[in-house]
Structures are given as C-alpha cells and as structure tokens.
Design a protein that fits this description.
single chain, two-stranded antiparallel ribbon, mainly alpha
C-alpha cells in the first residue's frame, strides 16, 4: 500500500519533469549557439557603429564635433584627474575608426575575436571617460568577452574560411 501511494505521488512529478524537459529542448533548439553568437555580435556592434558614424563628415574626414568632444568635453577619470585626452585629434580619429571597423568585422564575423578585443579595449576607455555608464559598459564588456571566448559561430566568414582552408574547427 505504501508503494502505491509513492507511485501515485511520483507520477504527476514525472509528468511535470517530462514537460519541463521537452520545453527546455524546444528553447535550446530556438536558441542555437550560432544564432546566439550572431545576435551577440550584432548587439555589440550597433552602439559602437551608431557612435562611430557621428564622428565623420566624409571618407576619412573627422567631424569638427568629434574633435571638439575629445579636446574640450571628454575627460579621462583617473586618480588625481580628470585629465584631458592626449592628442585629441588622433584619439578622435582612432576612436571613430574603431567604432566603424570593429562593428563591421563583428557583423560579418571576420577576425571576430580580434574585433571583440578591440571593442573590449574601447569599452574600457569609454568607462574611464563616462564612469557613471558602468551598467551598460559592463554589458558591452560581457558581450565582447563572450565573443572572444566562444568565437563567431557558424554564421560567420571566419567559420567559412576555416572550412574552405580545411582548418580544424574552432575550439568553442
């Protein structure tokens, strides 16, 4: 009789566990690693791209606003500071270039880990410039680190190049 009571109590639990397991399988199918990697690459690329296009007045021609920001507005919040950026025109050019090139590489999935590293370093500089923005900067850093660790996924030029060149699959 005790055995019948246990069986009666376990059956509904097994049913619930089975349903949760099936639902989990559906979620895993929808959120395939390659799709997640693509979405993460695009999500990190967008804010940098949007910032980058505002820094240019034409091909390799910085906007006056970009130079003014790095000359007068943006400051590095370091101990004993804040301090002005050194060589503000050069820093504005490098920043604007990185904000265009790295997002394009990320979206294409080309040199993906290096683009992720570039945006991680840019995120660190942005954090030193706008320390109150740490919640969003932490999110950017997490995405950049994820991209660096797990790579671009199968929806990328990096993946196609590795297959074409018959290189071993990426470790992650």
């Amino acid at each position: 009789m005790l055995s019948d009571q246990r069986t009666a109590a376990v059956e509904p639990l097994q049913l619930v566990v089975g349903l949760v397991d099936r639902a989990s399988g559906v979620v895993q199918t929808v959120a395939s690693p390659s799709l997640v990697q693509l979405v993460m690459r695009v999500a990190l690329a967008v804010p940098f791209w949007r910032s980058g296009i505002l820094k240019w007045d034409g091909f390799l021609r910085l906007s006056d606003t970009a130079v003014t920001l790095f000359t007068d507005e943006f400051m590095l919040h370091l101990p004993g500071g804040p301090y002005h950026f050194p060589a503000p025109t050069v820093v504005a050019f490098l920043s604007g270039s990185g904000e265009i090139v790295f997002p394009v590489l990320l979206v294409l999935g080309l040199a993906t880990r290096f683009a992720g590293l570039g945006l991680l370093l840019m995120t660190a500089i942005v954090e030193l410039t706008v320390p109150d923005g740490w919640p969003i900067h932490l999110t950017w850093a997490a995405m950049a680190l994820g991209i660096m660790v797990w790579g671009p996924g199968r929806i990328s030029i990096d993946y196609l190049l590795r297959r074409f060149l018959q290189l071993p699959e990426d470790r992650h």
